[in-house]
Every structure is written in C-alpha cells, then in structure tokens.
Amino acid sequence: MAEKKLKESEKEREKEEVEEVEIEEAPKEKTEGEKETGSRKATVSKESEAIMNIYTSFNNTIVHVTDMSGKTISKVTGGMITKHNRLKANPTIAMFISKRIAEEVKDLGIKSFYVRIRAKTRNPAPGPGAHSIVKSLTRDGFKILNILDTTRMPRGGPKVKGGRRGRRP
User: Who's near 46: CB < 8 A, 6+ residues apart?
Assistant: First the structure.
C-alpha cells in the first residue's frame, strides 16, 4: 500500500516537472523591434536611423555612431585599426573603419545615417578619411540621409598661434 502511494507521488512529481519545463521553454513575447544583445536590450525598428559623428584631422580619424537619442552604439578610431601613427588618417584605414562600423550596426537593423563631419577647429576642410567613410558606407548599402559640417569656427576668440606675420616656410 505504501509502495503504491510512493509511486503515485513520484508520478505526480514527474508531471509537475514536465509542466515546469514546458513553461520555461515557451518563448517570451517581445515587443516589436526589441532585440537582446549581450547584457543590454537595444530597441530597433525595422528600418531605424542613427547619427554618425565623423571627426577627421590630419593625424587621426574617429567615428562615433549613436542612436537618435544620443546613446552610443559603436565607436571606432584609426588607432583601433592600425598601430602606425602615420596611417591613422589614411583613406584606406577609413574604409576599414567603416567596414567595422557596418558589421556592428547591421546586427541592430540600422539602415540609414545622418552624418556629421567635423574637422579640427579653424580648419577649412576635413581630413582625408571623411569622404572615403561616407563612400564605403553607401557601397555597403546604407542610406545617407543628411551630411552636415559641424566644424567649430571661432568668432574672434583668442590669438592664433604663429605670431604677427604668421608661420613662414
């Protein structure tokens, strides 16, 4: 008699374990565009947009991709691609920067960018990497919605280095 009760109780426990397993395996419903990446959740829509800040000087190239609210998605510099100081501002290295950014951003479903190009303060033109980054992103299938120059230009401000007659050769 006691053995029958033990067998029945074991069968009941097995049924409960099976039910618990089924509950755990049931897929959780996610809201539209929610994707889990590592320890954080990144929300993206089917075709989302991002802001790409490109800082190019004649010594380095820095690309910082943020979502529309300003949270960092990816940041890649010339020093992360090459260890040669003279090559960090090279257009070829800029192409590798854009490839790495494209790999990181495609996973999140971003298809288009607002591009902000910034050169060193007072410089009339950005460094050599800016154009090649935009060009290689369009080749990778991304849509460029807007290109904006955000180079800082002083209005008067402190005296420029170089003396009264400027820098002479």
Answer: 33, 109
Segment 53-90, tens digit of pLDDT: 999 999 999 999 999 999 999 999 999 999 999 999 99
Q: Are 89 and 127 in contact (CB under 8 A)?
A: yes
Q: How many residues does the chain have?
A: 169
Number of domains in the chain: 1
pTM over 0.70: no
CATH, residue 134: 3.30.420.80
Give the residue numbers spanning the domain of 137.
Answer: 50-149
Residue 34 lies in a domain: no
> What is the spatial distance between Cα 143 and Cα 119, in angstroms, rounded to a whole number?
23
How does pLDDT run across 94-134, given as a tens digit for each residue? 999 999 999 999 999 999 999 999 999 888 899 999 999 99
